[in-house]
Specification:
The longest helix has 26 residues. Strand 2 and strand 3 form a beta hairpin. The strands form 3 sheets. The chain has a 3-stranded antiparallel sheet with strand order 1-2-3. The protein has a 3-stranded antiparallel sheet with strand order 4-5-8, with no helix packed on it. The chain folds into 3 domains: about 55 residues, no CATH class; about 90 residues, DNA polymerase, domain 1; about 190 residues, hpI Integrase, Chain A (Orthogonal Bundle), CATH 1.10.443.10. By secondary structure, the protein is mostly helical. The protein contains 14 helices and 8 strands.
Amino acid sequence: MARKGENIYKRKDGRWEGRYIKERRNGRAVYGSVFARTYLEAKRKKNDAIAHIQESAKQKDKKKCPSTLSTISRQWLDDLRLTRKPSTIMKYENQLQKHIFPVFGNQKIDQITNDDIIAFSKSLLSGQGTADAPMSPKSVSDILSRMKSIRRYALMEGMEVQYAADCIAIPQHSQPLRVLDRKEEEVLYRYLNDHCGLTELGILLCLFTGIRLGELCALRWDDFSMDERKVHIRRTMQRLQTRDSTHKTKTYIDISAPKSACSIRTIPIPDHIFNVLQKSYAENAYLLTGSLQKFIEPRTMENRFKKILADCHIPDANFHALRHTFATRCVEVGFDIKSLSEILGHASISITLDRYVHPTMELKQENMNRLSNLFAVK
């Protein structure tokens, strides 16, 4: 007997059957059925089936009416905030606001084609797009990575996307990185030893440990194990933009854990650097200031480093050249690459070899001479 208005019947075989409209074809209803041993179970199954059809209809509606790229991008960013550092979110927001939104922001995501992405990439490389000047292949590739991530997110949300993730490949041309040669390093080393301030101490520490500028600026004396002659890297400092209207300034200093887990590491301190460190030791203080209430931010430290280079008559270099120089010297003296990779805080040995190890011409000459000496006439 039917239950009025519910379209649920008890069959002759004792089971309950619930009927529902699956779809309409040419204006006619097409029915589906669920079966159960009790009325309540049949009603639940029928409601579940109807809910599934309604949810599928919503997903189809999404595909028919996709969001604009700016809308879906902001949803993607909001989801990322829980798992990404503020510096990463700020970088993505800047790329969206400055380069992507002016071109694609108001377009429906299913209207953007491969040809649009290719033309956009070429305009950035040539400087005819939203950039003030031609952008490097690396920077353009970073922006395209955001477009790929947005595409992936839109597909997960059930939207149709026309452009492909790999519709264009930007050739990468690695730029030669600045490494101090041995003569420059010797001149700098003598200067740092003759001028025993905390700034010079910080530069000296970087020259012989390869720590990053932000890590140096966040370094405190309680990060050192003086009895074990080790330094623990567990924080980094950087200046970030803020989009919060409640802030009085446009930027702020952020001191937090490094971006990746492998950057949190312990580094043994060379004996001669340890002896210098002991003379300046202070409890509960930043290394570069001797105070816990004051710190030196990365930009200031960069400027101080460049002034020291000028005083030493060494050609200009950025602070990161100390890291390159450290890695290069380690390889030259036969340092174990696995250990070096861990000291630098890299996720794999290949990163260390590809990015930071740059054999000098002197080392190449020495190796070539070793080869020729195999057959030297005695």
